[in-house]
Design brief:
Number of helices: 13
CATH topology of the largest domain: Nucleotidyltransferase, domain 5
Distance between the termini: 24 Å
Oligomer: single chain
Largest sheet: 5 strands, mixed
Structural class: alpha/beta
Number of strands: 10
Strand order of the largest sheet: 3-2-1-4-5
Number of domains: 2
Length: 315
């Protein structure tokens, strides 16, 4: 049977609402966890903590409409699961759920934080550990008895160690100290000036604190630190060593809280830093002591949101 001929109640949809983009995947209830979506839709950043709920609603709607349009469906799916960065509290999740129900996007709506679908995509029994390092960072896990714990994820001001923002901020810190002469000389100074279009070191102040330099824009500058580290710049390499140690420490602490042995637990990895920096990812996993065979990359958390939606539909 062609997908376009299937009954509307066969459809489910999973949406990953992130700080950089929003991705919606449409699937069928009888598909397997590893199957590709039958349609996908994309929109802009939807983290309500960053853009506000109204903007978040617009981006979620756009991604879903594009996915359903690609699927050739005009009827709502039976289950919608939205995993939303910046909506870790029940009150935020309920606000999103009620909005989706009022719009009749689906018959049933599930809203989770951004970590749950990552585990769902990697672990068939939904038990294990999650480590995210993108713009921000977080370690999250669920034990077999249902206990859920998290470590990190306190936000960019005082709790996103090992994240893109933290790495970029450390690189800017090192550049400023080098410019002052109170720190080691490093290629990061010139590289950060190039990154922010500054012709002199003191221009970094205006460029970094200006209205155009959003948190996401600064976090993207972590790429500069990775590039300079390949030039055997000791300062850049130390920044990355500290960042990988921060992430490894988060997972180790979380494992202890949940009573996991890191050598036997499933670890799901996500976020732009971990997905795009292979050497850095290997360093983190090695420091944790994880079994590589139990470590899984989840480049698109919408896959896990779709798994949650599908499981809810067939229960």
């Amino acid at each position: 049977m062609n997908f376009r001929d299937r009954r509307p109640h066969d459809l489910v949809i999973g949406v990953d609402v992130g700080g950089t983009k929003t991705t919606a995947w449409v699937g069928e209830t009888d598909s397997g966890p590893g199957d590709s979506p039958v349609a996908a839709g994309h929109a802009g950043p939807g983290n309500p903590r960053d853009v506000g709920f109204e903007s978040s609603f617009r981006e979620i709607s756009a991604a879903i409409e594009r996915a359903l349009s690609e699927a050739g469906s005009t009827a709502p799916p039976i289950v919608l699961c939205m995993s939303v960065a910046g909506a870790g509290r029940p009150v935020e999740q309920e606000h999103l759920r009620q909005w989706a129900l009022s719009r009749r996007i689906a018959r049933r709506v599930i809203v989770t934080g951004d970590a749950e679908p990552i585990l769902a995509a990697a672990s068939p029994n939904n038990v294990g550990l999650v480590l995210i390092s993108g713009t921000g960072s977080l370690a999250w896990g669920r034990a077999a008895d249902g206990r859920v714990k998290r470590v990190g994820g306190w936000g960019y001001l005082f709790g996103d160690g090992g994240s893109g923002y933290a790495i970029a901020a450390a690189g800017l810190h090192a550049a400023a100290h080098a410019a002052d002469g109170r720190g080691e000389q490093t290629l990061l100074l010139e590289a950060m000036m190039d990154q922010f279009d500054a012709t002199a070191p003191d221009e970094l102040i205006e460029r970094v604190y200006g209205s155009a330099a959003t948190r996401k824009r600064i976090a993207r500058s972590a790429q500069v630190v990775f590039e300079i580290a390949t030039c055997n710049d000791c300062v850049a390499r130390r920044i990355l060593e500290q960042a990988s140690a921060e992430l490894a420490g988060m997972v180790t602490t979380l494992s202890q809280k949940l009573g996991f042995r890191t050598t036997t637990a499933v670890l799901a990895l996500a976020g732009g830093i971990l997905m795009n920096q292979a050497e850095f990812r290997l360093s983190v996993v090695s420091q944790i002591g994880m079994d590589p065979n139990l470590t899984f990359d989840v480049p698109c958390p919408a896959a896990g949101a779709l798994v949650i939606a599908r499981n809810a539909a067939i229960q």
